[in-house]
Each structure stands twice: as structure tokens, then as C-alpha cells.
Design goal:
By secondary structure, the protein is mainly alpha-helical. It has one domain. About 75% of the residues lie in helices and about 10% in strands. A two-stranded antiparallel ribbon has the order 1-2. A hairpin with a 4-residue loop joins strand 1 and strand 2. Helix 1 packs antiparallel against helix 2. It is flat and about 65 Å long. It starts with 6 loop residues before the first helix and ends with a helix. The relative contact order is 0.07.
Length: about 90
């Protein structure tokens, strides 16, 4: 018998590689199709960025903000509740 990782691990790795490849391809596509320079004025900072970079930056900031809010309002309270219930069960 083989003593390697289960077959499911290989499938997850293949899916991960496909998703990363698609994300990089979409990023390159957005970046090349939106290469015009755009002025961004944020009161204290004045930036001149390519539109594709601005779109991808806004998308990634929104993604991280959404994931952070979802974690702090759903996952974190559930972990605290689980820890409390485990402590009560052990006592």
C-alpha cells in the first residue's frame, strides 16, 4: 500500500491551481483592457493610477473588508460561544 496523502488532496491542489490561474488571467485581462490613467484625489493624497489597477485594488480591498466583517460578526462569536460551551462541559 502507498503511504502518501489521500487522493482528495491532489484534487484540491488541482482545483486551487486552476482557480489561481483564472484569477491571474482575469487580473491581467482587466489590467490590459483598462490601461488609461485616472486621477484619484483623496483630499490629502493625489494619485494617478491606471484604471485597471484602481479597479483591482478596489475589488481586493472590498473582498478583504467583507471577509473581515464576516469573520468578526459570525465566525468569531461562534468560536467564543464554542469555547464557553466546551469549558462548561469540562467543568
Amino acid at each position: 500500500m502507498e503511504s502518501g496523502p489521500p487522493q482528495e488532496f491532489g484534487l484540491y491542489r488541482i482545483i486551487f491551481i486552476i482557480v489561481i490561474t483564472l484569477a491571474v488571467a482575469m487580473g491581467l485581462l482587466v489590467g490590459t483592457l483598462n490601461s488609461d490613467m485616472v486621477n484619484v484625489d483623496l483630499l490629502w493624497v493625489h494619485l494617478e493610477w491606471p484604471l485597471g489597477l484602481l479597479i483591482l485594488s478596489a475589488l481586493s480591498m472590498g473582498l478583504f473588508l467583507g471577509l473581515g466583517l464576516a469573520w468578526s460578526f459570525t465566525i468569531l462569536p461562534l468560536r467564543i460561544r464554542l469555547r464557553k460551551l466546551r469549558n462548561e462541559n469540562q467543568a
